[in-house]
UniProtKB/TrEMBL annotation:
Transmembrane segments: none annotated. One of its GO terms (molecular function) is DNA binding. The keyword Cytoplasm applies. It holds the Pfam family TACO1_YebC_N. Residues 5-76 form the TACO1/YebC-like N-terminal domain. It comes from Treponema berlinense. SUPFAM superfamilies: YebC-like. It is found in: Cytoplasm. Its main location: cytoplasm. This is Probable transcriptional regulatory protein SAMN02745152_01452. Belongs to the TACO1 family. The keyword DNA-binding applies. GO terms for biological process: regulation of DNA-templated transcription.
Amino acid sequence: MSGHSKWATIKHAKGIADAKRGKLFTKFIKEISIAARMGGGDPNSNPRLRTVIIKARAANMPKDNIERAIKKGTGEDGATSYEELVYEGYAPGGVAVLVEVLTDNHNRAAADVRNIFTKSGGNLGTSGSVSRMFQRKGTIELDAEKVNEDEVMETALEAGADDIVNEDGVITVTTAPDAFSAVADALAAKGFETLSADVGMVPDAYTAVDKDTAAKVQKLIDRLEDNDDVQNVYHTAEYPEDFEME
């Protein structure tokens, strides 16, 4: 078993930054809309849409919101054209940062992201400078106190999961992107409640930072995630165990 508990830590930190539920749902609406526009409104025949819906449901997004977002994407309820962009850069301490953006204004998004990096002591890099340090994987987290680890492991592995780790009270199931939906469905069918479910970029290696640097990195991450055009932020920082989020 590889040590994906660091990924769980990053996910939990992101959850704190995305605590404003309305902003989180707005991000899901954009992601659902573009998935529906590109591949149609039926999640059974649109894997990308299905994956986003699983993520949204794991965050307790209401069914009505999801359905409206699908209609918006398919043009039934008015459509906004979004562009998908990826920015790569470095935070203080040499921490690699990957930023996924969905925007209706390329110039605004580029200027905003660059400004956030600069003001936070980081800098943008060239295309490919950071993305090569990450792999796209599915991760599903469960409360270890509320589920049976052996049952989770058996169910997840049979459905195609790559790895299961139990650490710090969280069971993290890792999958290949194309196996994510099948594993999530199998766990749901067994009645296992998930803390989160996502397909995202996982670092191949991490950069250990001290408390002061961790605070600077997190400030950059928070500013990025607070931007309306930013969908996801991934980074390679490994925070000290006693570092507390503000």
